[in-house]
Amino acid sequence: MQFEEFKQRRQALAAQMGQGIALIPTAPEATRNRDSHYPYRFDSYFYYLTGFDEPEAVLLLIAGEQTKSILFCRDKHLEREIWDGFRHGPAGAQEKFGFDEAYSIDELDQRIAELLANQPSLHFSLGADAGWDKRVTGWLKELSAQARSGIAAPAAIQDVRRLIDEMRLIKSPAELEIMRKAAQITVQAHQRAMRATQPGMMEYEIEAEVLHEFMRHGSRAPAYTSIVAGGANACVLHYISNQDQLKSGDLLLIDAGCELSGYAADITRTFRSMANSPPCKKMCMNWCWQRRPLPLPKCVQASTGMPRMKRH
């Protein structure tokens, strides 16, 4: 996806805001144990507006006569980059991603008062993260204390995610292409699992087949924890332990989808673990197949460019 598209999204959000300032932080890193972290996953709202996938970053978007996008992110740090990998740094991020200004994340507290001062409204997702709620309310209290000197805090706080959610309803051609690719990778993963499945296999072995297909096509992670449930395990709605052995004749439910560039696929299928299943299970499968809804819904493109469901 071209970085110009992210810039256009920021401009579109600013137009919807009218006047005010938006604050959108990315997701924090999560410690797995001691000095080991879980694989990092950015915040979807932040990434939708920036295309920036590093942790410890915040987007400030100022709307009004002169729209301005400001990124706060980690500094370049040669020693940490030896351990953790490449960092863009403020200057590199500004140049590559098209922000109007970029600063070190360490400067956020000292710069935020000037940016928030006398803004009519703050667009922020209050309640989404307790840590950020505390920081934002602290900044607003500091500004309110300066009222006698002519400095005003934003008079209203509005949920920025509501505006972004409306924007995300309509997908661009580039987004649709990524979604189609994610769906195709997921289809291939389910087909691989079906071909590999044999009685006596462990559920996690089949899960490994799915993950292998995801990663070899460029998806670095599933969109959600995969469900690979044999027999009675399929009756557990969110079964994710995937640790039992598949018995001969069992039905196997797989609910798995890959994530690609932040976009998720989601497919669920149930199939028999062997061709010669007991007659009662074969009869049940045939009964369900004969009574499936017909005709099947098909996703078509409406004249507005938004996908919708239509019978054909």
Q: Any overview of this molecule?
A:
With 312 residues, the protein is α+β, with helices and mostly antiparallel strands. The protein folds into 2 domains: 3-168, Creatinase/prolidase N-terminal domain (Creatine Amidinohydrolase, Chain A, domain 1, 3-Layer(aba) Sandwich), CATH 3.40.350.10; 173-310, Creatinase/methionine aminopeptidase superfamily (Creatine Amidinohydrolase, Alpha-Beta Complex). The protein is 39% helix and 21% strand. It is built from 10 helices and 16 strands. The chain has a 6-stranded mixed sheet, sandwiched between helices. A 3-stranded antiparallel sheet has the order 9-12-13. A 3-stranded antiparallel sheet has the order 10-11-14, with helices on one face. β2 (31-33) and β3 (36-37) form a beta hairpin. α5 (108-116) packs across α6 (130-144) and α8 (173-196) packs antiparallel against α9. The longest helix is centred in the middle third of the chain and has 24 residues, at 173-196.
